[in-house]
Amino acid sequence: MHLKKYLGGFLFGGLLFAFTSYLLLDTFVIVRRYETVETAAQPVITVVSEAMAQSETVEVEPTSAATAIPTAAPTAEAVTVSTSAAHVVSTDTTYRDENISVQLTEYRISDTTVYVADVQVSSPEYLKTAFAQGTYGRNVTAKVSETADAVNAVLAINGDYYGARQSGYVIREGVLYRDKAVKNAVDLVIYGDGSFGIIRESEITAEALLESGAWNVLNFGPALIEDGEISVSVNDEVGRAMASNPRTAIAVVDDLHYLFVVSDGRTSQSEGLTLYELATFLKTLGAKTAYNLDGGGSSTMVFNGTIVNVPTSSGKSTKERSVSDIVYIGY
């Protein structure tokens, strides 16, 4: 009698446990490959920037940058771009060829080591994104160093880890992969001409973004700097994250002039940065638009095939986290 009395409860509990376990596995473990990606051609190419044409040394000089969302796709005349570097000069902290210039600098901010790659390119063609394993899907991941090696990246950082979520716009290399909007989501748009814009998903459709010239859309956030002004407060944070964390960010200083930034954190050597500290630092470097990418254990920078920072999830061990995607500079 007693068994019959509780049998229904046992069965319900068992079913609930099984269903919850499946949801967790489906969200974080089960790999679903939706589409293998082939690199598309960049539709808009611009000429060599004046700074790269006239100088052998690249320096960060804050100047104005066009960051407004265009109302139509750019119409600049396309030119042929190189698919490989002909003349490369490279050191542990620098890379330079006829189209790409990278200067890596290490800073110490708020008891934290911060790595900044100052990048200038001759064309937006060389600012790229890539999916882990060359595949758009769910729980399809790889280490940043592995994906960077697969695409021969000169410089790479982790992206927005789109595969950890089931919604939020995903546009990569001019292709729309996911159009399900998230309420209050703030995205970074990288347009075909290499300019940056900040949009709210509730205010524009993914299809409209494509029509406006969006080439890559990253969905993490928040925006750190908009129109040259800091757009986060001292108390802003990502979800339930701690106040100080390893961080990854990308910013634009001027036309075809970018900053790739990764900070360490969660260790005795590096405490980590708040969003406001990161935004304040980027503004001192001349950033006109800056955006926070996936951080914490995901924060990783790879330069010339070498991991630059100290990736860690717990602070107890150094280990790269496998992620869904990267943002990189390369051919």
Task: Describe the structure concisely.
This protein is of the alpha+beta class. The chain has helices at residues 2-28, 50-54, 144-150, 206-211, 275-284, and strands at 32-36, 89-90, 94-96, 100-109, 112-121, 127-131, 135-138, 142-143, 155-158, 170-172, 175-178, 186-191, 196-200, 214-218, 223-226, 229-230, 247-254, 257-263, 289-293, 301-303, 306-307, 322-323, 325-329. The termini are far apart.
Major pleated sheet: 9 strands, antiparallel
Report Rg: 21 Å
Parts with pLDDT < 50 across at least 5 consecutive residues? 43-79
Number of helices: 5
- Please state the oligomeric state of the protein chains shown: single chain
Kindly report the spatial arrangement of strands forming the biggest sheet: 2-3-4-5-18-17-19-15-16
Which percent range fits the helix content? Answer: 10-25%
How much of the sequence lies in strands comes to 25-35%
Backbone structural class: alpha+beta
Q: How do the helices and strands follow one another from N- to C-terminus?
A: HEHEEEEEEEHEEEEEHEEEEEHEEEEE
From the N-terminal CA to the C-terminal CA, the straight-line distance is 73 Å
Could you say which overall geometry the principal axes of the C-alpha atoms support? globular
Beta strand count: 23
- Average pLDDT taken over every residue: 84
Describe the 3D structure.
The structure is a single chain. The chain has 331 residues and is α+β, with helices and mostly antiparallel strands. It has five helices and 23 strands. The strands form six sheets. Strands 2-3-4-5-18-17-19-15-16 form a nine-stranded antiparallel beta sheet, with helices on one face. A hairpin with a 3-residue loop joins β2 and β3 (94-96). The model is unreliable at 43-79 (pLDDT under 50).
